[in-house]
Amino acid sequence: MSALQLNDVYKSYGETEVIHGIDLEIDEGEFIVFVGPSGCGKSTLLRMIAGLESITAGELQIGGERVNEMPPSQRGIAMVFQSYALYPHMTVYDNMAFGMRIAKASPEEIDRRVRSASEILQLNEYLTRLPKALSGGQRQRVAIGRAICRDPKVFLFDEPLSNLDAALRVATRIEIAKLKESMPETTMIYVTHDQVEAMTLADRIVVLSAGYLEQVGAPIDLYERPANLFVAQFIGSPAMNIVSATLAKAGKISTVRLASGNEVKVPIATDKELEGTAVSLGFRPEDMTLITGKAKALIEGPLSLVESLGEVTNLYFDLEGTPDPLVAKTPGTGDFKRGEHVKFTADPDKMHLFGADGRTLLR
Ligand SMILES: Nc1ncnc2c1ncn2[C@@H]1O[C@H](COP(=O)(O)OP(=O)(O)O)[C@@H](O)[C@H]1O
Ligand SMILES: [Mg+2]
Questions:
Q1: Same domain for 146 and 272?
Q2: Domain final position from 234, 257, 286
Q3: How far is the CA of 43 from the centre of ligand 1 (A)?
């Protein structure tokens, strides 16, 4: 039995439909990450699961039981938000204990749960402090601790790290990864627009766009086998390069012709009827190789921007007939100059082909 199930779930605010029929099954103990651009419906979906928003149509099941009409407090769910609203005049201990005191739990039970949560989150030495004496990351850990104390079956996070600065984000992300390990039976749904959080934390990622579910899969699956152009360009950073091309020859191996006339044989099978039609060829910045001298390039153009990150350098260059610059990742630093002509090959085994409808032509 799945921990949580969405069956053809819709949400409208007044006349405006924002979630357009989502089907999703989540197993007990799974760590699921919802990703997608701002406004795609991540928070709405999470709030519907929590019971903070009504479900316009469709069904939500928790533990096999329909819960559409069940109030939030009875769903066995705890939620952590972006802003960690702690009570400023209460100690860390009291902040974590507050909900249980309201629920009239015994002092022994409260103490046991607070100690266990603060153990998991390494908050032991801060229990007597007030929130103002904590860093942003520690405060967010207290908010998470408060949720743990409720012993939820399902744990929901809505962009819990987005108010933290870069270093704290990394540290707190690692805490959340440990939290997941220490609560293997608890199902977790985590909303983020951060690639790295999604890739590193998720058992499965759910990619949303404009209220539609684009693809569900393990992080590496989405990276290696995106179902369509949207997922291909959303997962991976910098985004996958997409170039307009023609399917010159269909077959078990497809010959793809670029606007430049350059051709590449890609080990992807295509139907004869697609021969001569427009396709999009995709290849990731990390699957490209810089070439020098007389060697034949697949793509080339003038460098428009050099981004040196230390361990890698991103080279942006203009390809004739393509509006957006392409980008290649090269290891290390290098001596590159804007305007310089650069040439690349790309690994055909790692290329992707998309039909005119944006769907991936499968290997
Ligand atoms: N209370 C509301 N009333 C009307 N529209 C809303 C409300 N909340 C969210 N929306 C709309 O629903 C869509 C999804 O929003 P949201 O779930 O917050 O997106 P995300 O969390 O992915 O950024 C957006 O178009 C947003 O404007
Ligand atoms: Mg949101």
A1: no
A2: 234
A3: 7
DSSP string of 266-317, one letter each residue: ES--B-GGGTTSEEEEEE-GGGEEEE-TTPPPSEEEEEEEEEE-SSEEEEEE
208 CA: nearest ligand 1 atom: 22
The Cα–Cα gap between 296 and 235 comes to 30
CA angle 69, 71, 73 (to 5 degrees): 155
**pLDDT at residue 304, as a whole number:** 96
Report the separation in Å between the CA atom of 33 and the middle of ligand 2, taken as the mean of its atom positions: 13
pLDDT of residue 120: 85
Distance 113 CA to ligand 2 centre (A): 30
Pocket of ligand 1 (CB under 6 A): 13, 18, 36, 38-44
Query: What is the predicted pLDDT for the residue at 68?
Result: 97
101 and 29 together in one domain:
yes
Q: Ligand nearest 82 Cα, by number?
A: 2
Residue nearest to atom 4 of ligand 1 (CA): 13
Domain limits at 183?
2-234
Same domain, 46 and 157: yes
pLDDT at 324: 87
Protein residue closest via CA to atom 3 of ligand 1:
13
Helices and strands, number each (H, E), in the chain = 8, 21
**Distance separating alpha carbons of residues 305 and 302, to the nearest angstrom:** 9
Q: Which ligand is nearest to the CA of 35?
A: 1
Task: Kindly give the parts of the chain with pLDDT less than 50.
Answer: none
